């Protein structure tokens, strides 16, 4: 079987992988980007139809190419996918689509990456496959009535997937709030979950940029936030674009956390039964990298790293993780700084081997 050789392999061709490729190309380092989707931007096109970013166009550009459109515009998912596709073509980045990586292990002082029949050896590997890996749904979901339509936010596209009757949206973070508004035009909607609060400043603004510098891994405030970052995906992040008033005006009812099921009906804390013909689980994702056969993970399977550098596995790096170096690390407009930092180190590693 033929084995390809590349100094650096980037796993994932979304914004994190493409930004890393840009900086690798600038440094003259040979590399290959592997992406599981059929086209660049596939992951964005696969999200719900009404999705819009909460960051403005002026903040959404990757390194070297501004995001198109009015500076204050909030683009939809397809606009983001189109931009990523154009970005890869503009910089002639070597993205191989349809290559779902199913194995990563040591090979001498380097690595062996497998993706189906593809075998690639590399001196350094950058995992840019994202943090939202496996949809999280509580075990008691199986106890809901058999005729209840259940969808995770990863599978929700539009209200046409739902049956007639009330909708329970579980999870009151940004995804839950946006989807609750999306279905509220044709359904009676209850939004269940703890109050996640609201971000006090607009993403992309000067204040936001200053806060991003303050809340970084190299500052006392940032280190304190980092210690709590593992709980973010479970507790929900503060609302950004949507306000509590928006939900109230749309007729969305708010209630507490769903804690179980009684006789096929969801129960919230306090014991109230919530009538629901449809349940939409906006309950986040668990990080999962079963294809990585290396000691790179700690508590709950989260990558063990400092600013994306895995010290226990020299030559292995991450880009695009939540709070990798700052609170903006997982956003399109913030991933570039981490990509530059990791690309430099990956190139040095490749040159030394």
From TrEMBL:
The keyword Oxidoreductase applies. GO terms for molecular function: flavin adenine dinucleotide binding; monooxygenase activity. It comes from the Bacteria. InterPro entries: Auxin_biosynth/cation_transpt, FAD/NAD-bd_sf. Keywords: Oxidoreductase. Gene3D superfamilies: FAD/NAD(P)-binding domain (3.50.50.60). This is Oxidoreductase CzcO. It comes from Salinispora arenicola. The gene is czcO.
């Amino acid at each position: 079987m033929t084995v390809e050789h590349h100094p650096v392999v980037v796993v994932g061709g979304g914004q994190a992988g493409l930004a890393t490729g840009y900086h690798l190309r600038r440094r003259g380092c040979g590399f290959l980007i592997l992406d599981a989707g059929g086209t660049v931007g596939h992951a964005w096109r696969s999200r719900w139809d009404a999705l819009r970013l909460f960051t403005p166009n002026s903040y959404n550009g990757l390194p070297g190419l501004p995001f198109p459109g009015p500076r204050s515009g909030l683009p939809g998912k397809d606009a983001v996918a189109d931009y990523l596709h154009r970005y890869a073509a503009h910089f002639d980045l070597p993205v191989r689509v349809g290559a779902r990586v199913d194995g990563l292990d040591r090979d001498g002082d380097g690595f062996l990456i497998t993706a189906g029949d593809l075998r690639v050896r590399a001196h350094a590997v950058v995992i840019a496959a994202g943090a939202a890996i496996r949809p999280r749904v509580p075990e008691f979901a199986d106890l809901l009535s058999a005729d209840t339509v259940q969808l995770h936010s990863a599978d929700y596209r539009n209200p046409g997937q739902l049956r007639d009757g009330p909708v329970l949206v579980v999870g009151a973070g940004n995804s839950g709030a946006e989807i609750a508004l999306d279905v509220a035009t044709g359904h009676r909607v209850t939004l269940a979950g703890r109050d996640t609060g609201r971000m006090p400043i607009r993403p992309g603004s000067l204040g936001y940029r200053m806060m991003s510098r303050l809340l970084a891994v190299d500052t006392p405030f940032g280190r304190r936030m980092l210690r709590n970052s593992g709980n973010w995906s479970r507790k929900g992040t503060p609302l950004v674009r949507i306000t509590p008033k928006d939900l109230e005006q749309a007729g969305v009812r708010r209630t507490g956390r769903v804690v179980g099921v009684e006789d096929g009906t969801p129960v919230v804390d306090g014991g109230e039964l919530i009538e629901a013909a449809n349940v939409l689980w906006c309950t986040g994702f668990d990080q999962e990298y079963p294809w990585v056969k290396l000691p790179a993970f700690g508590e709950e399977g989260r990558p063990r790293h400092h600013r994306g550098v895995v010290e226990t596995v020299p030559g292995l790096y991450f880009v695009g993780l939540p709070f990798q170096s700052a609170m903006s690390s997982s956003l399109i407009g913030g991933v570039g700084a981490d990509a530059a930092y990791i690309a430099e180190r990956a190139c040095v590693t490749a040159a030394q081997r």
